[in-house]
Each structure stands twice: as structure tokens, then as C-alpha cells.
Design brief:
The chain is an alpha/beta fold. The protein contains nine helices and 14 strands. Helix 7 packs across helix 9. About 3% of the residues have low confidence. One of its GO terms (molecular function) is phosphorelay response regulator activity. One of its GO terms (cellular component) is protein-DNA complex.
């Protein structure tokens, strides 16, 4: 069973989620405040994934996520949010979140996203022994480190996975459907185009000299995206 940490202060939601997640094969620890979560995350190695509510009595899930990423922890993180406004999506992605679920949500949707992120969190033995180089970019799969023009890029988990997919297929067009299928649920049903567009925009700001005139991460209108070797 995968071990999850659920940070949520709504008692009725906690009870239902705890029961349902256990029935779906997950072991769940509960934290109701940021302080409780930080104490449990002192042993973060015991967890496989974090589910963080955004609004809490003593802070936000964003703060917890930022603290985890400061210590270079690559554990998958899902946000539970009462709003699907773009500003909240961007805030969650910027601080290192991998996905978000808008309340109210269906349990099947949440479980599918959890399983998708857990699958993506695994690194194959071949990946662990390899470094991918493409022009002026180098990806070290063992350390999850990306170097561009001799500088280390600070990427969120999702940005890192998206970049790996594009660079592996350098100079080829990767469709939006393929990206959604590879990064999230197998059918891509639970991620909209708006979310992917946010990822692309934020990634461009980190890999391009001028994000408004991209030279590496190119949009192929009507098809998808292409990483051009520079």
C-alpha cells in the first residue's frame, strides 16, 4: 500500500476521504493544521504522495509545499482547492505542486490522479544510469537535475517531467494529447488544456532567453509542441 499524507481541516471531508482512500488501497495519515503537517513531514521518507488543502487554520498548503521543495524533496503533491481560477493554479504550480483537484470532486477522479502521479514518480533502472544531452541542455535522471547553458534550472516536478518528455522527443512534434496522457491519467480526462498551457508558459520563462519569442519550446498550432535542439 502507498502511504499518503492528507492535510485537511474539514472533519466531514477527512472522514470520507480517509475511509474511501483506504478502501482503494492507500494508507493515509491525517494532519489538520500546517503545524501538524510539518511535524509529520519530519519523516517525509515514509510518504509516497502528499494531498494538501490550500486554506488551513494556521496557514496554507502552499507554504507546506514550498518548504518540502526547499529541501529538494521530489515527492508528488496534489492540491485540494475550492477555486479553479488560473491565479490559484499558477500559485500551486509555481510552489512545486504537481496537480490540483477542485472541490467538490469525485473520489474516482482523485484516486486516478493519485495513481497517475505515483506511476510517474517511479524512475526506471535505465534512467538512473543515464544522462540525456541535447544541444545546450543536459538532464541527469539520477539527481533529477537539468543544466542549461551551464546553469542549473529550478523546476517543479511537473515542469521537470514535461521537459524530459519534450527533450526525449527533440525536433519532433509532441501532441497535447500525448503530453496529457504521459504526465497525468492514462486517458487525460482529468486535465484541461488550460492547465497544460500554464505549464508551458512557466517552463518557457525558465528555458527561453525571451519567453515571448521562444527558440527552444515551440508551439505547433493545431498539433502540440516541439523542443528544438539549439
Amino acid at each position: 500500500m502507498s502511504n499518503l499524507l492528507l492535510l485537511e481541516d474539514d472533519i466531514s471531508l477527512i472522514d470520507g476521504l480517509h475511509y474511501s482512500l483506504k478502501k482503494n488501497g492507500f494508507y493515509v495519515d491525517i494532519a489538520r493544521t500546517v503545524e501538524e503537517a510539518e511535524k509529520q513531514l519530519a519523516q517525509i521518507e515514509k510518504y509516497d504522495l502528499l494531498i494538501l488543502d490550500v486554506t488551513l487554520p494556521d496557514g496554507t498548503g502552499f507554504e507546506v509545499c514550498e518548504n518540502v521543495r526547499k529541501h529538494n524533496k521530489q515527492i508528488p503533491i496534489i492540491f485540494l482547492t475550492a477555486s479553479d481560477e488560473e491565479v490559484n493554479i499558477i500559485r500551486g504550480l509555481d510552489c512545486g505542486g504537481d496537480d490540483y483537484v477542485t472541490k467538490p470532486f469525485k473520489l474516482g477522479e482523485l484516486c486516478s490522479r493519485i495513481r497517475a502521479l505515483l506511476r510517474r514518480a517511479g524512475v526506471t533502472p535505465q534512467d538512473k544510469a543515464s544522462v540525456l544531452k541535447c544541444g545546450d541542455i543536459s538532464i541527469d535522471f539520477l539527481s533529477c537535475r537539468v543544466i542549461l547553458n551551464n546553469k542549473i534550472l529550478e523546476l517543479t516536478n511537473a515542469e521537470y517531467r514535461l521537459l524530459c518528455l519534450l527533450v526525449r522527443n527533440a525536433n519532433r512534434i509532441v501532441s497535447r494529447d500525448i503530453i496529457l496522457n504521459d504526465l497525468w491519467d492514462g486517458t487525460g480526462n482529468f486535465v484541461d488544456d488550460n492547465t497544460l498551457s500554464v505549464y508551458i508558459r512557466r517552463l518557457r520563462e525558465k528555458v527561453e532567453t525571451d519567453a515571448s519569442h521562444p527558440q527552444r519550446l515551440i508551439t505547433i498550432r493545431g498539433f502540440g509542441y516541439q523542443w528544438k535542439e539549439v
